[in-house]
Every structure is written in C-alpha cells, then in structure tokens.
Write a structure and sequence with these properties.
7 helices; Spore Coat Polysaccharide Biosynthesis Protein SpsA, Chain A; UDP N-Acetylglucosamine Acyltransferase, domain 1; about 350 residues; 9-stranded mixed sheet; alpha/beta; 7-stranded mixed sheet; single chain; 30 strands
C-alpha cells in the first residue's frame, strides 16, 4: 500500500494563518498538522507516499524533505494549476498504478486505524472504500447512505441543511484499487466528491463505507482549528505529543524556565526553550510554541501561540491565535484575535 497526502489546497478559510504557511503546515500543539499525518503513516507501515503541491510548496518540501526523518519515502507532484483531488491523483498514475492506495489529507487530524481500514477494504473487495464518521452538522461535509452490506447507495456533497440523507460524513480518507484510475480523465480538474464518486454510483460500481473509530477532524476554519488543538491537549487524539507529560495534562519541552511565582493550569503545551517570568499566568487549554516568552505579569488564557512569540509585560491574551514571531507590546489586551507577523 502506498499513500497520497493531499497538500495542494489554498486553505482560504484558515486565513490569515494560511497567508504565511500552507494549510498542512498550520501548527497543532506546537507541530505542523502534516507531522501527525506522516507519523500516522509510519506507525501503520505505509512508507511510500506522494505529496501534491501548489500553494507555498517550498515550505512543505523544506519540512518533509525526502521523508527520512519520519521513516518515509516521499515523492512530490507539483501542480502549476490546481487539478482537484482526483485530478491530482490521476497526475500520479505512474506512481500508483500497481498498488492499493491510501488517500489522506495533510491538513486533517486523525488517529484512524489504517490497518483495520485496509483489512475491511480488502474483505469488501470494492474498487474504493471511504472512511466515514458520524457528525452533528452534515451540511459541512459530503455525506453518504449505506445499504446493509456497507455499500454506498447515495453520495451527497455538502447537502443543504435538513436535506442530508444521513449524518455519516466522508472524511476524505480513502482506499483505492488501481482500476479506479481508469475512471478519472487525464489532464483535467476532477474532484473525488463532486465528480468521481457520483460517476461510480451512477454506473453501479460498488463503493464501500467504513465506519471508522477514533478521532477525525477536518480543520476547516479557525474555530475548528482551535478545537483541534484543545482536543490534542485533552487526550482525545491518540498521538504522542513531544516533551514530558505532567499531571493535569501539561506537556513541557526541554530548556524551559518557569518562575516559581508564576501560575500554570492545564491542559497546556509548553514548547522548548520557553520562558515564563514572575507573575505570568497560563490557563489552559493553551499552547506556547518553542522559544516563546511571557514577560512579568502577562496572562495567556485559552489561546494558541506559535513559535518565537513574545508577550510583553502585563499583556492579556484570551481566546486568540498568535502566529510565529509576533511580539505583543507591554500592556496590550486582546480577546478573540488572530495575529500574524506582517
């Protein structure tokens, strides 16, 4: 089995964070989202991957490299113009044409059991299997209706409120047999949800639906992005966060300085080489990225700081996201903000 890590999207709903990095590189608990995908593939023995690129490709390539630091072998496919999810897959036909292929997003957070998913797919013997998850608001997703044999009867792409055939969401995680490539036109923009799956259903070609257990989150907007961070801190995702874990769901990296007369309350992630000065307070769920500094009397509540952030004396920051390298001036009071370095 090989994998395709979808990484070409623009991530417009995560602006302004995606004004500076592509969506797979948005930080979750101190690490790019893409790191969790790469480690998941390695954990389940899916070691050969292709990554499609379009927006700020150099950042992803610099981070993943040849994949060796994650125990992977990575190849890249540059899309000068977006090809769509299925079109990007077709562009890599030579890489995938002899293998079962796992499709997974570089910008979604999941701990899906890939091996169990693979066993289910092979048992069903279908050309494609979609991983499904129950959701409360189906109108944000593609949703499906299954028959008793776990075969998809109906596929709806983002139905209007009240019109969804079920609450089973398409997670964007798929297993495909090579023959599926024959149904995707070459050199064309083509989408799995809008084009390919409806075509297969109309032609009476069985697609299976796998009810995944565990965690899945499509990080579609800034509020969901914050919740994904908080889910990591609260242990709702089966991943290993870096650093040392303490009571109260507090993770700390190396080289940190926490003044004895400061106050910290989990769940928290505090990255490497952070400094928390006297009288500073962190109230979770919050993230303090590597090399960040909280000066005397500053307060961080339910917020996410990326790396190299500095909170000046007396800064109060609540329900906010602060991008890499931002320095907040002494006495600033901010709530519900999203800040990036200009």
């Amino acid at each position: 089995m090989k994998a395709m890590i979808l990484s070409a999207g623009l991530g417009t709903r995560l602006r302004p964070l995606t004004d500076v990095v592509p969506k797979p590189m948005v930080q979750l608990a101190g690490s790019p989202c893409l790191k969790y995908t790469a480690k998941l593939l390695n954990k389940h023995g899916v070691l050969e991957s292709a990554v499609n690129l379009h927006y700020k490709p150099e950042i992803i390539k610099a981070y993943l490299g040849n994949g060796s630091k994650f125990g992977l072998i990575v190849e890249y496919s540059m899309e000068d113009k977006l090809m769509g999810t299925a079109g990007g897959f077709k562009k890599l036909q030579i890489f995938f044409e002899n293998d079962t292929t796992l499709i997974i997003s570089g910008d979604a957070l999941t701990d899906i059991d890939i091996q169990d998913f693979y066993r289910f797919h092979k048992k069903k013997g279908t050309i494609a299997t979609l991983a499904l998850k129950g959701v409360t608001n189906p109108s944000n997703y593609g949703v499906v209706k299954l028959n008793r044999d776990s075969v998809i009867e109906i596929f709806q792409e983002k139905p209007s409120p009240g019109e969804a055939v079920s609450s089973l969401a398409n997670t964007g995680i798929y297993l495909f047999e090579p023959e599926i490539l024959d149904y995707i036109p070459p050199d064309s923009y083509y989408d799995f949800g809008k084009d390919l799956f409806p075509l297969l259903i109309n032609e009476k070609i069985d697609i299976a639906g796998y009810m995944m257990e565990g965690y899945w989150c499509d990080i579609g907007d800034l509020e969901i992005y914050k919740e994904a961070n908080y889910d990591l801190l609260n242990g709702r995702v089966k991943v290993d966060l870096p650093g040392k874990r303490h009571a109260g769901n507090i993770w700390t990296g190396s080289g940190i300085e926490i003044h004895p007369r400061s106050f910290v309350k989990g769940p928290l992630f505090i990255g490497d080489n952070c400094v928390i000065e006297e009288g500073a307070e962190i109230i979770g769920p919050s993230v303090l990225g590597d090399n960040s500094i909280m000066k005397k009397g500053s307060l961080l509540r339910r917020s996410i700081l990326w790396n190299n952030v500095r909170l000046g004396k007396g800064v109060h920051l609540e329900d906010s996201i602060v991008g890499e390298g931002v320095h907040l001036r002494e006495g600033s009071f901010l709530k519900g903000e999203v800040l990036i370095k200009s």
